[in-house]
Amino acid sequence: MPIHGHTKIELTSQTTGEVETIEKDNIVTNAVSQIFNAFNGMALLREANANGEYGSTSDKSWELLESLYGGILLYDTALGSDPNTLFAPPEANLVGSGVPKVLNNGKGLQRGSFNTTESKTDLENGVVTFVYDFATSQANGTIASVCLTSRYGGFFGESETALPAADGSNTSSYYNSALFGQETIFPNAPGQNDRHLYGRPLYADPEKDEMVFGAISNNKLVLRYATALTTEIDLFNPINTTRVKKTEERDLSDFLQVDHFSYCAVSYDVDADKICVVSTPGADQLKTTGLIRVRTYDRKTLEEKTYAFINPTGVTLAGNVGGTSPGLRNTGRLLGGCLFMAGYTTSPAAKAVPFFKIPLADPSNVTAITTHDLLMPMFQDMHDGRIYFMGSRYTACGTVLNTATNEMHAIEAYYNYEQYPYLAVPVLGQPAVPYMVRYDANSGNNQSTVHQGIRRNYLATINDLDAPVQKTADKTMKITYTLRREES
Questions:
Q1: What CA–CA distance (Å, rounded) separates 17 from 7?
Q2: In terms of C-beta density within 10 A (0-12 exposed, 13-18 middle, 19 or more buried), how is residue 18 classed?
Q3: What does the alpha-carbon distance between residue 341 and residue 107 come to, in Å, rounded to a whole number?
Q4: Are 355 and 401 in contact (CB under 8 A)?
Q5: Which of 130, 139, 154, 149 has its CA nearest to residue 6?
Q6: Using CA of residue 205, residue 211, residue 215, residue 218, what is the dihedral sign?
Q7: Is the pTM higher than 0.70?
Q8: Cα separation of 220 and 375, whole Å?
C-alpha cells in the first residue's frame, strides 16, 4: 500500500519565543515491505491484518501502523534517497529518538516524549500523525535527517553512561515478533559446536532457500548448506527435521595453532561478505607476543586469503575465541574487514574490558575502542558498521559499538531474562529481518532454535532536510510526522 509522509519541525527559542519551522516530504523505505516478504513470505499476513503485530491474545492497543512506523530517529548526517537504505551508516551519529505512546521518564538525553494530545491515528480516513516533544536538554546537536522507525526502534538512543531500562525498553521484542510465529526454521539439526545444530549458523540465503552452517572439525572447515523448506513441499522430508543439501570442506591443518575448539572459531563478516576463521595459540591469555591467524573465504567462490600477525595491541587479549557458543563471543569476531578483540579478564560479564579494532589490511593500524567503562560481554548482532549487545541477566543496559567512531555507547534497548541471549544471523538481501538463534544455558537441553526476527531500529522512512538545523539547549523542539495513504 503506497504511503506518503511529511515532516514538520518547530524549534522554539526559550529566550525570544521565536519559532523556526522546517517542513519537508520524506521517502518511504523498503523496510516494512521487506518484513512482510521476508524469506519467501514467512510473515503471517492474515494474523497481522486482523490482529496487528502482537496477536489477538496480547496487547491489542497497538495498530499495525503504529507498531511498524511509530518510533523516530534523528541523525546528524543526510542518509540519501535510496529506499533500500534500511540502517544508518556508522558515520551518521544518532542525535535524538522517540517511542510512540511513551514519555521519557528515563535518564537518556536523546529520547523525547510522545505528545498524546496532538498525535492522532485515523485509520478510516488514512491519516496517522505522530508528534514528539523535545525539551531543552534533549536531542541537542545537528539534525540533518529525520526518520521513522519501529515502535521499539526509538529505544536505540545512545549515551556515554549506562541507561537503565525505563518506559518499556526492557522487552524480548528485540528478538521476537508475533508476525512470524515461534516455530524453529531449522529443527533438530544434529551436529557440532553450536549445541544441536549443524555448526554455527553463518547466514541465510532466501534465493537458494537455505541456511549455511559452519563448523571446525578434524582440522577442517565444514560448511553445511541446509534447506529451509520454504519454497516447496518435500513429501520425503521427515517432520521435525531439516536436511543438508551439500557440504563443502576446506583444510585448516596449516592454519590452526592448536587442536581445541576454544581457540578457533568460524563466523561471517556480513559487511565484507566473507566467511572467516580465527585461530589463537591455545591459552585463555593471548600475550603481547601471541600469534593471531585469520583466514577469510569469499562467500560466493570460497577463494581464501590468510593473515598472520603478532598481537599488535600492546596488552594481553582474551584468547578463547571459540567454545560451545562462539557466535556470542566478544572477541575474535570480524566486521567490515576488521578483527575485534577484547582484553583479558577473569570476569568478563561483570567488568568493563578494553576492546581493539585490528584492520586485516594493516594490523599495525590498531585502534583502541573508547568504551566509557561500559560492559559489552557478548556480541549479539553485527551489521552496517555497528556491533550490538542488548542485554543478559547479568547486565543493566544494552550497548552499541560504532566501528567508524571507534566508540561504545549505552542504549536503552535491552532484555535481561536470558543467560545466553539471542544471536542474530543475517539474511542476504534482507537486512531488516535476520534469524535469531537461542542458546540454552543447559548443555543437556535441546533448545538451540532458529526463528525469524526483526532488527527494530530499521529506517522506515528517511527525510533529509534541505539544510541541517541546530537544536541547542535554549530551544525546545516539536516534530510532527504525518503518514497518509495514497490511493493507487
A1: 22
A2: exposed
A3: 30
A4: yes
A5: 130
A6: negative
A7: yes
A8: 34
C-alpha cell at 4: 506518503
How many residues are recorded in the chain? 488
Q: Name the region of 349 (left: φ>0; alpha: ψ -120 to 50; beta: rest).
A: alpha
Quote the mean pLDDT of the chain. Answer: 91
| Each residue's pLDDT tens digit, 239-254 | 878 888 999 999 999 9
Q: How far apart are CA 205 and CA 96, in angstroms?
A: 34
Q: Which pLDDT value is given to residue 200?
A: 86
User: For residue 377, how many C-alpha atoms fall within 13 Å in the half-sphere facing its CB?
Assistant: 19
Q: DSSP secondary structure string, 69-120?
A: H-EEEEESS---S-TT--S--TTSPEEEEE-TT----SS-SSB-EE-TTT-E
Question: What's the gap between Cα 22 and its chain centre?
Answer: 31
User: How many H-runs (helices) and E-runs (strands) does the chain carry?
Assistant: 4, 33
4: burial class by Cβ within 10 Å (0-12, 13-18, 19+)? middle
β strands within 218-273, DSSP E: 220-227, 244-251, 264-269
Residues contacting 400, CB < 8 A, separation 6+: 156, 158, 386, 387, 388, 389, 408, 409, 411
Residues 6+ apart with CB under 8 A from 301: none
pLDDT tens-digit profile of 393-432?
888 889 999 999 999 999 999 998 877 788 999 999 999 9
